[in-house]
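In response to reviewer comment 3 from the previous cycle, which asked for concrete evidence that the modeling workflow produces usable outputs, we include below a single protein chain processed end to end. The sequence was submitted unchanged, and the resulting structure tokens are shown without manual editing.
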Amino acid sequence: MRIVVTAKFVPDATATRRFDTRDNTTDRETEGILNELDEYAVEEALRLTHHEHDQVIVLTVGPEDATIALRKALHMGADIGVHVTDAALAGSDAVSTSHVLAAAITHISACFGPIDVVLSGMASTDGGMRVIPAMLAECLDLPMITFADELTITNGVARIHRATPDAHEIVEADLPAIISVSDRINEPRYPTYRQIIAANSKHVYTWELGDIGIDPTTVGHHGARTYVRSATPATSTHRRHTIVPEAQGGQALAELLRAHGTRPS
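The workflow returned the following structure tokens.
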């Protein structure tokens, strides 16, 4: 079985997030990591591949530093990394990104062999649009299943279980298929030191748009169907007072209220 996992390089949620003043998009020069929700897709791919000739190929589209996301997936156990990077990609929206991913997946199939499954996380932690799997399925003309809480593959058929507000659903699709997985499907592993060292010998292929047959004028700012008109950082709220331990909480709260001119009832 050959599985491709789409992995997004996103800003670290613990770092200060900045916006590029030229186009109001997220500044990709800030410290980044593998999208945490994509780790569930990597883990599920590793669980599904048991045989010697099975392959897990991790694919990312992004700037030079996006290899950080690939390396994390390789540390977890993925076999090959593919990085599509090109200056023309700056400013790409979800539509153009999905076309690039689709072209890269087609090229992966030509280079490494037929692909059985494409897995993705259920969303990205920076944009959270949740549309890439659907767009990718449309580009590749493949069936799609979303938000899998449980996934099994038997005799060329993928079966997933997922919970919705109204029901518990069981959905099947013939392979090859695009499947997004939820954060309830597994618990991503922590790479061991030995796995991290072993990953250093794994290969990361770097492709430009021309390598996968994409016209640079169809992506980036030129090809984007959407653009960000404005972006304003959210106002953060900080805890001003911490009351511990619990046994003294009542008295401390009463004193705090008095200090602010409020009479405790």
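The mean pLDDT is 87. We consider this sufficient to address the reviewer's concern, and the full set will be provided in the supplementary archive.
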